Amino acid sequence: MIRMTAWLVAFLLLGGLHIVEAQPRVYKIGELTARPNLTRSSGEIVRTLRELGYIEGKNVRYELRSAEGNPERFPALANELVRLKVDVLVATSAAEALAFKKATKTIPIVFYTGGDPVEAGLVDSLARPGQNVTGVTLVSTELIGKRLELLKETIPRLTRAAVLWNPQARNRSPWTASLLPARELGLQLHSMEISSVDNVDNAFKQAIRVGTAAIAVQLHPLFAANQVQIVDRAAKYHIPAAYPRVDFVMTGGLMSYGADRDEPYKRAAVLVDKILKGAKPGDLPVEQPTKFELVINLKTAKQIGLTIPPNVLARADKVIR
Q1: Are residues 252 and 173 in the same domain?
Q2: What are phi and psi of 14, to 5 degrees?
Q3: pLDDT tens column, 217-251
Q4: Is residue 224, in this structure, part of any structural domain at all?
Q5: pLDDT tens digits for 56-76?
Q6: Dihedral, CA of residue 26, residue 29, residue 35 and residue 36, to nearest 10
Q7: What is the mean pLDDT of the chain?
Q8: DSSP 3-state of 243
């Protein structure tokens, strides 16, 4: 009887240990963004990770921190996420990734950014990022000329345009990158510089004073976080604008040309998965988009009194009517 009791106790103890060991590990993913009023992590990243087997509340937990449109909060929020000892940090721009990089040398960082991550100081090279950082670059700076080209095709008589960019950006100046395309298109270019949401209206007024008739917008966290104000000003002054992402068009912008909306997030999610499975971020090459899309908002075109030429409309991947 004593032997039977001892055997039963040992069986229950081993069974209990087995139950404990069977519990899945819960990974913590920290994300930092400039966009205000966000309560959940990037939808496509979450969806892709779910397809890869990461179920929120079961084996993964997301920690989201928003700077509410104020990039100056990045360092404090980055340190907060590092203190939570998350398994991977996800950054939605170079500025956020740099804040993470200053906050930790050990926690893996995955970014998706519009500019050149090498020039920004994020990685050593695209092929061999090095250290604890990798991600996806949207090559947005290189696309500024394409947006100017689309504006010229939409408005054949266009002679004066502006490039809206943030002079405090760490990447190669969109202004410099736009000069040659503008010259080839016969455009006189105005440098429309916005480094704070407080000077959005003044920047538009100044652009109007110098005769700006169209605007090509560069991708930057400040503009993404305050896209409503920028889109509203363009509508107020009846200025056609070409944006870097489709969400600007969904907000009411005229047109956008840039990387496919979901592809960068999916690629970033795959990188997160590889890292959680043991890969070192410094050994994972920085990825670049393969799909680009043109989206046009005909409602906005009508609102500002602009007719989109059939040849431009025919090339659109999506048209909002």
Answers
A1: yes
A2: -65, -40
A3: 998 878 888 899 999 999 999 999 999 989 999 99
A4: yes
A5: 989 999 999 988 878 889 999
A6: 40
A7: 89
A8: strand
147: phi then psi, degrees, rounded to nearest 5? -70, -40
Percent of the chain beyond pLDDT 90?
A: 66
Report whether 110 contacts 135 (CB < 8 A): yes
Q: How confident is the model at residue 168 (pLDDT cuts 50, 70, 90)?
A: confident
Q: State whether 238 and 306 are in the same domain.
A: yes
- Is 43 contained in some domain? yes
pTM: 0.74
Residue 180 and residue 207 share a domain: yes
Number of domains in the chain: 2
Helices (H), ranges, 93-143 = 94-103
Question: Where in the sequence is the domain holding 67, given as residue range(s)?
Answer: 25-138+261-283
Strand, helix or coil at 273? Answer: helix
**Strands 88-91 and 27-33: what pairing?**
parallel
User: Taking a C-beta distance cutoff of 8 angstroms, is the pair 160, 212 a contact?
Assistant: yes
Q: What is the DSSP letter of 286?
A: P
200 to 20, 172, 182: CA distances (angstroms)? 56, 22, 23
The answer as to whether 12 is a domain residue is no
> Which tokens is 152 given?
């010229």
**CA 11 – CA 84 distance, rounded (Å):** 37
pLDDT value at residue 103: 97
- Which residues contact residue 154 at a Cβ distance below 8 angstroms, ignoring those fewer than 6 apart? 214, 240, 255, 306, 308, 309, 312
Residues 159 and 298 in one domain: yes
Question: What angle (nearest 5°) sits at the alpha carbon of residue 319, between those of residues 45 and 111?
Answer: 25
142 within 8 A of 177, measured Cβ to Cβ? yes
Do 255 and 179 fall into the same domain? yes
Q: Are residues 182 and 300 in the same domain?
A: yes
Token pair for 170: 């760490």
Report in angstroms the alpha-carbon separations of 217 from 148, 214, 258.
9, 10, 11
